[in-house]
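Input for the complex:
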Amino acid sequence: MSKVRLHQDALPPTNEPLRIAVRRLRWFKAAFLRHAETVSQELGCKLEVDEAKLAGCFMRWLDAIEVQRPADKSQRRAFFEFAAALMMRELTTDMPLKAEGVPVLAQPGSAAAFWPEGYCCTIFCLSVHAAATAQEFHTETTIDPAIDDLRHWWSFRENTMQDARFSAGFLQMLMGSQPNWVMPDVFSAQTKDDRA
Amino acid sequence: MPLPSFIQPDSMPLREALRGLRFLLRRGGETLADTISVDALPKPASEIASVVMTEVGGIVRSVDTVASSAAKKILGGQENPTAALDDLIHHDAAEAEFAQAIYVALSAVLRRFGTTSFFVSEMSARATFAAWRRETGEADPEQRAAELTLRLLDARVVRGVSVDKAQLAPTGALDGAAVFAVLLWLQSSRSDAENEAALDAAADIALAKADEIARALAARRLDSLAALYRKYVDHV
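Predicted:
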């Protein structure tokens, strides 16, 4: 079993369903800042958040989900997962985090030690997705064992540096889906099996 | 014996005058410091200029402090309302409430945008809101908010905006984006506890969409502006 822990419990409280709250910038920002603080403590290094970049990520994400949202209600659940992947794409397109110092508490050779910023964003997207899915569909999110394999993180970082769309595929893979690696950020291009 | 009731004097004009004075002094001090390069002058001119600059700086600072504290006293405690714009319209003192709110909120947003100095006219905001309230029709809330946005900008509610080098948006777009942010915030659903975070979020949204807002404002396209309000009001 993976040692990676999601942080659903660290998400800020809200009276609204999470699927609504996450689309409000004030909640999204509070959630990200709180998450970055939690991960900073976990890793033993400060993760500085650029709030202007974070707001930019959020706005691009809103536009992206609006453009790609399927009309077919049967695809709602699949799109839930896909929305998290699009968030991952936007966070890696213009990374709003910067690690100040070395993550001294991270296990050597772990993803967190290898790329603290990428790790923090990945766990954020997975945590929000897991919490929202549990609330909407009463199911638990299972993380693929690939999350513990540093080779995937090497590939993730290398490829994402060249093309941020890759990160959308990486997140889908961690959620157990088989992404379309040619167009990992296009919902209609994913296989029907994955969208069921 | 009951005490006679007096009509409360309107403190807004005095408050505005004090703020105007404060603005001019701050701006004047900045301009002076930016304009005169004391170090480049030959002696004894540089020594004389140095003394004069120090004296002027002192005067500006003391008058600035007096104007600020006097304005604050007259200002009293000003808090942002949690009422939505559409509810605010029906309040008895809607004009004054709106003007005070927009002063506080616009100032906060402009600072968030990285402006170094600006003047927000509470008087213009009150007069504009009163006229808009009288004349606004039965359009949907976003359309009416778009109309109020244009009116506030036409009335130059925000004046004298100057920004530092690290400005976040083109100077010309800042006043429009700031007014858009405040009206977006006023339309959004929020609690007391969320008020400040909601205003910050509205400001960030406006900044991210500054170009689109500027285009809609330049073309005076109420429909485009209303569409932007409609699109983002639930995302503040």
